[in-house]
Amino acid sequence: MIHRILLSGLLALTTSATAIANTVKDREGAVRQDRAARENDPRWIYNDVDRGFAEARRTGKPLLVVLRCVPCLACAGIDTQVLTESSALGPLLDRFVCVRLINANTLDLSRFQFDFDLSFTTLVFNGDGTVYGRYGSWLHQKNAQETATAGYRATLQAALDLHAGYPANRESLAGKQGAPIAYKTPVEIPGLGGKYTPFLNWSGKVVPSCVHCHQVNDGLRLTLRNQQQTLPESLIYPNPEPETIGLVLADDAIARVQSVAPGSIAARAGFLPGDQIERFAGQPLISPADFSWALHRQPATARVQASIRRNGSAHTVDIPLPEGWRQAADISRRVGTWGLRAMASGGLQLQELTDAERRERGLSPDAMALHVRHAGEYGKHAAAKNAGFRKDDILVALEGHTNRITESQWIGSALTRLAPGRAVPATVLRGTNRLDLMLPIQ
User: Fold this and answer.
1) Same fold yes or no, 242-327 and 336-441
2) Rg of the Cα trace of the chain?
3) Chain-centre distance of CA 177, in angstroms?
4) Which candidate among 40, 169, 179, 290 keeps its CA 20 to 30 Å from the CA of 25?
5) First to last CA, the chain
6) Buried-exposed string 375-387: b where 16+ CB fall within 10 A, e elsewhere
């Protein structure tokens, strides 16, 4: 019975995520075409990471693993640049053993821990399995046609530099390694194993046989909820972007500060535009994604140090992370958030009203005003609609609280405190009417 509940829940999450993801028209054809084009490519080992590790050990080269969700349009631009033989990246790529993975079914989750919500990710390893670093770009994720590769080139060169210093630098890489995890591979996660096997179904429909990267966290969250547990913040706000603490890092560099949000954690710590962050939490960085990974590994409260270079001089910046720091993360555009919406708000997609929209409605700038942009209609995503909530309602109170809050903050607040099976009081504005309803928590 529990297995059937898990499986039906995962199917609902996958359906919802697929519904909002931009994909190619012929997903099956795209995957097969990718295989035909790459499985005999002299540069790329196709979908065989074990062979990649063996080749890295044989040659002494670092191993570069690109994980790509082929049917997704997101990141198509940079993916094309990485694959194009004549690309300026070619000379750098030839210094690596290159592997292209198009599914997550048999990923070794003790090694492959990264931002699972991205459609294009790169991890760089030593042949012995030591992680040198990660690359993943929300710039390319948001704009499928973005082809900029300056940041990627910087990452590859930085990884080569770490490889040249290995194993003398092994101790500094300790924080880059995967954290303990309960499951060896995604198909061992409850629910996923009932639907997927370790192997892609090339003789039939290949796309439905593929575990997508985002399903790893989807499955971990759903397993905990079906055990009537709350969720840790690290599963709700995974790999927090630098903006979470007030930093915008440039896309064309390893970790150069582009701007600092006034009054933010980063501003109070003393970061300045132009700072080059060389180490964060003791880890040598090779990309902004490395910064997010180091942030991801921090506890609920912490004091973290960054080694920076400012105007040619070395400095140390001390960053206190206060309680609740993760809740400043904006998770609204993550595909994994659709499953969290079913859990925390019965399938509602919420967006804060702007200050101008608040003035039009006579609402205070400090008050809660969450616009229901979408109300799910199927499975667990229909729970709020079945409880009386409607598209275009404005949530103005939750659990008796009326203070200003974002959707991301509500999701974190609800799922770290409330077990499934409850409903919390909510007040909505529907036109000129004020209605009291009960919001289901699942």
Assistant:
1) yes
2) 22
3) 17
4) 40
5) 17
6) bbeebbbbbbbeb
Which one, of 188, 63, 42, 190, lies nearest residue 125 by Cα? 63
Q: What's the length of the chain? A: 442
What six digits make up the tokens of 21?
């993801």
Cβ atoms within 10 A of the Cβ of 102, count?
Answer: 20
Homologous superfamily (CATH) of 2-176 is Glutaredoxin (3.40.30.10)
Q: How many CA atoms lie within 13 A of 152 on its CB side?
A: 29
Residues 302-357: pLDDT tens digits? Answer: 999 999 999 999 999 999 999 999 999 999 999 999 999 999 999 999 999 999 99
Preceding peptide of 167 cis, ω within 30°: yes
Please list the ranges in the chain whose pLDDT falls under 50: 1-20
| Listed residue (56, 290, 37, 70) closest to 158, CA to CA | 290
Residues paired with residue 367 on neighbouring β-strands, in sequence order? 403
Q: Between vectors from CA 253 to CA 248 and to CA 257, what angle results, nearest 5°?
A: 30
Report how far Cα 219 is from the mean position of its chain's Cα atoms.
14
The residue with tokens 């930085």 is: 158
CATH top-level class for 242-327?
Answer: mainly beta
